Amino acid sequence: xxxxxxxxxxxxxxxxxxxxxxxxxxxxxxxxxxxxxxxxxxxxxxxxxxxxxxxxxxxxxxxxxxxxxxxxxxxxxxxxxxxxxxxxxxxxxxxxxxxxxxxxxxxxxxxxxxxxxxxxxxxxxxxxxxxxxxxxxxxxxxxxxxxxxxxxxxxxxxxxxxxxxxxxxxxxxxxxxxxxxxxxxxxxxxxxxxxxxxxxxxxxxxxxxxxxxxxxxxxxxxxxxxxx
Amino acid sequence: xxxxxxxxxxxxxxxxxxxxxxxxxxxxxxxxxxxxxxxxxxxxxxxxxxxxxxxxxxxxxxxxxxxxxxxxxxxxxxxxxxxxxxxxxxxxxxxxxxxxxxxxxxxxxxxxxxxxxxxxxxxxxxxxxxxxxxxxxxxxxxxxxxxxxxxxxxxxxxxxxxxxxxxxxxxxxxxxxxxxxxxxxxxxxxxxxxxxxxxxxxxxxxxxxxxxxxxxxxxxxxxxxxxxxxxxxxxxxxxxxxxxxxxxxxxxxxxxxxxxxxxxxxxxxxxxxxx
Lengths: 228, 275
Fold this sequence. Notes:
The complex is a heterodimer.
Chain A: E1 2-11, E2 15-25, E3 30-34, H1 41-48, E4 56-61, E5 64-65, H2 74-79, E6 81-84, H3 96-105, H4 111-124, H5 140-152, E7 158-162, H6 170-185, E8 189-194, H7 197-203, E9 206-211, E10 214-219
Parallel strand pairs in A: 3-8, 3-9, 6-7, 7-8
Antiparallel strand pairs in A: 1-2, 1-4, 4-5, 9-10
Chain B: H1 2-33, E1 39-44, H2 50-61, E2 66-72, H3 74-85, E3 102-107, H4 110-120, E4 126-131, H5 132-175, H6 177-185, H7 190-229, H8 233-236, H9 242-272
Antiparallel strand pairs in B: 1-3, 1-4, 2-3
Helix pairs in contact in B: 1-5, 1-7, 1-9, 5-7, 5-9, 7-9
């Protein structure tokens, strides 16, 4: 699903954010990307979204070599992934329903299909009763659930979460992770970049650890830190 | 800013409207007047006696193309002048007569006029010649000057409008920066993000052009109705009535307004939005 081959990213001649990284994530996997700040997690995400280009190396997503993709095709690439952010990134002037519907609007879906799918995805994240609320009226956990709903409504094969629980309390955080695991069970590949140690330890999925731009650990059923 | 945008487009197109009105009218005048001014007036120097006047008259009568020559003394000219002033003629009493003696030459046909004038032009008795061609040539020159000057002003104003609109759009862009960012992340295409701003620019330009059109046409109607009736019946009769030029000028206005608006948006989008 995601393949990084010999990927290096050096920012403006000084900082080496990623150093000759090889990663292979298969379809349907659930993967944690861990590491302290500056380890390279955000750079990894940016390369996935084509927000940045690698200095060296090849990136393949869902069989498409994204390193060779033209800028024109970038929106289409991003639409094939679901993305959730630490700061939720909901449109403040739209209701919950409209925020989720928006993701379908930009992919040119018909109003009829939108009306059908949005409610079902809302109930999947348990927010059916909040459809007409605005983001400002919701708690952090609820906002993130809207973010997840928006991310999955177009049935992407890959879901990327960049510190999804960073702004949430432990209870909400667990809830979010549970929803992500559910989504993974239905066949979506899930990649979570995080430094939420407890959650990683609890879920025991594949853990890829970055340190100073290098892959230092890649284990199945792993913990945040090496088991001693 | 919105007001500034609309106002600048309106101003620029208003100038265009005035220039167009003047130029179209002058050109029309030039064409229609040619057939009406078929007389040539030759003003004589003051230092000439009756005998010389008579012989000069005969000389002119003999020129090929001349149909008739009539002498108009300075007194006669003054009378005619007073007539034109009508009620206010008494104001002219007591003033030294500044007018000159002249011959009014009627030509056989318009095309002979040039030849006739050329053949007597250098004569010593002549102080000044006035005939249609002078007038029309002058008017065409004026028309050209106005077009050129006008065009430069219009170009300048249009460019300014464009940048004012670009600035207005820039402000709109910055106001919605967060949303645009989010849209980009979830995969909205560039044009999906751009088009509301292009439409906004379009409307700014459109409203500006409508205001300008309204202003120009009201002004034109006003001027037309005033001139068509008064003493300047001479000029009034030549003014183009509005309907003849309305349609095409209106379309030009709308097109330019929309064009400036859209261009302004695109310039701003290109510079301030990495979309």
